[in-house]
Amino acid sequence: MPEAQRPRPQPTPETRHFWDGTKVGELRLQRCDACRKAYFPPRPFCPHCAAREVSVFKASGKGRLYSYVIHHRPVPGFTPPYAIAVVELDEGPRLMTNIVDCPQTPEALVLDMPVEVAFERLDDEITLPLFRPVKG
Amino acid sequence: MKPGSIAIVGAAETTELGRIPELSQIGLHADAALNAMKDAGLKPADIDGIATAGETPVTVAHYLGLTPKWVDGTAVGGCSFMIHVRHAAAAIESGLCSTVLITHGESGRSGIARTRPAVSPGSLQGQFELPYGPMGPPTLFTIPVLRYMKTYGLTHEQLAMVSVVQREWAAKNPRATFRDQITVDDVLNSRMIAYPFRLLQCCLVTDGGGALILVSRERAKDFPRKPVYLLGTGESVETPMVSQMEDFTSSRAFRVAGAKAFAESGITHRDVDHLMIYDAFAHLPIYGLEDLGFCSRGEAARFIWERNTAPGGKLPLNTNGGGLSYMHSGMYGMYALQESVRQMRGIAPAQVPGAKLSVCHGVGGMFAASGTIIMTNEAP
Ligand SMILES: [Zn+2]
């Protein structure tokens, strides 16, 4: 499996909930208890209003393809050409990801197409949130 | 900074540019620094402030034999040097020091003793970007552009035209790495790197360096070269993660730095004779023209297509050939500053006749940071 050689994220105390979530099939975001804004990447306070009172919640896992490039050069763990994409989640935040179950071509990767999370297990500790086109 | 209170009195690049296998990174800093000191008629003992990125100010001060009483190691990528100019101006104006040397050197191509910032796998980039396969700037800096293309209808041909026009400028510059004319078709037929970016839309990778020396206006007239006065400066940062930019069609750091520099200088866009916008990739001049306020949203590509920034156009842009054709060691901002200074001194290879005012805009990281410097050759 080429995926085994991807750069492996190293969870920190502030991001542990996110990686615990992907392991059990949940995409977890955070929301500020004070201003109610959802945010990403994880941190133990609100980046909009600095409140420390924040909650972790399970996101829908749905979003749209926001932007991407298709890399044509070899990288350990990847078979070119492959898209490095940014998805905008229905809850608002954007995150970098890869798009699976989809040809890695401009024709197939259409901006704003609906996508949903597809979890890719790397090892016992790390499962990555990838995305795939929503069928139908 | 009070407009015109600080001047650049020394400016030079490394003796060679391109492939310099006989110098390490610190050697490139030193070669540029010695050239700039010679340009200004100064010795190491005359320098009392040092700013640099890539190397630390400690390393550069020791290597050159300096005893600074002011140091700045701001290292936010390729626009660090614009920010050094801004900080140096504030330091001189407030009396912290009197003569600042800013150095850059980078063995980008030969890779001799090059320092590279490592991204920890536990950092936010390490956790939330690197696992998805980006490999350096060609795969990160470029990510927002498809969103820009969809929002404003920017075409592949228009994006290719940026490289074509800059090569026209490079053709006039004997020190430019690439000088052969290219067409839109040449760009669109060059090797695909990271769709929609092809080889000719990505910057060079070369060795080189540059250095600047700044003093107060009062002292500036006593130097051998025509002083170049600072009119306005700006800086900002946004995010180390391109995926977390607020707006994929515009850089917040560009807008903040540019607006601050323009406000400080008191000039209008119509006053600008010459413009440098750090072009690591072909979309940068488009974002820069709009975020600095030279063009309305979505209009910059047409502005370039209609040859307004080309030789003979009303807003000469990246007149050295830019990072796309002149040189790009990794942190190109220093070379953009050098070209602005040359234009203000009237000695640029592709000199803009009668140019009195230059705007020099830099980017650091992947839209992570920005610095803008506005300069003039007219004494305040
Ligand atoms: Zn909040």
Strand and helix map with partners:
The complex is a heterodimer of chains A (136) and B (380).
Chain A: H1 16-23, E1 28-32, E2 38-39, E3 54-58, E4 62-71, E5 82-89, E6 94-97, E7 114-121, E8 127-133
Antiparallel strand pairs in A: 1-2, 1-3, 4-5, 4-7, 5-6, 7-8
Chain B: E1 6-13, H1 25-40, E2 49-52, H2 57-64, E3 70-72, H3 80-93, E4 100-107, H4 124-128, H5 137-140, H6 145-152, H7 156-170, H8 184-189, E5 192-195, E6 197-198, E7 207-216, H9 217-220, E8 228-237, H10 252-265, E9 274-277, H11 284-291, H12 300-305, H13 322-325, H14 333-345, E10 357-364, E11 369-376
Parallel strand pairs in B: 2-3, 2-4, 9-10
Antiparallel strand pairs in B: 1-7, 1-8, 4-7, 5-6, 8-11, 10-11
Helix pairs in contact in B: 1-2
The structure holds zinc ion.
What does this 3D model show about the protein?
The complex is a heterodimer of chains A (136) and B (380). Chain A is mainly beta and 136 residues long. Chain A has one domain (16-133). In chain A, 6% of the residues lie in helices and 36% in strands. Chain A has 1 helix and 8 strands. Chain A has one helix at 16-23; strands at 28-32, 38-39, 54-58, 62-71, 82-89, 94-97, 114-121, 127-133. In chain A, the strands form 2 sheets. A 5-stranded antiparallel sheet of chain A has the order 6-5-4-7-8. In chain A, strands 2-1-3 form a 3-stranded antiparallel sheet. Chain A is globular and about 45 Å long. The model of chain A has no long low-confidence stretch (mean pLDDT 95). In chain B, α1 crosses α2. Chain B is globular. Chain B has 380 residues and is of the alpha/beta class. In chain B, the strands form 2 sheets. In chain B, strands 3-2-4-7-1-8-11-10-9 form a 9-stranded mixed sheet, with helices on both faces. Chain B has a two-stranded antiparallel ribbon with strand order 5-6. Chain B has a single domain, classed as Thiolase/Chalcone synthase (Peroxisomal Thiolase, Chain A, domain 1, 3-Layer(aba) Sandwich). Chain B contains 14 helices and 11 strands. The chains are: A mainly beta (136), B alpha/beta (380). The A-B interface holds A 6-12, 15, 40-41, 66-73, 75, 77-78, 81-82, 84-86, 94-98, 106, 111-112, 128 and B 120-122, 124, 126-135, 139-140, 142-147, 150, 191-197, 241, 243-244, 248. β4 (62-71) of chain A pairs antiparallel with β5 (192-195) of chain B. The complex binds zinc ion. Zinc ion is lined by residues 32, 34-35, 37, 46, 48-49, 51 of chain A.
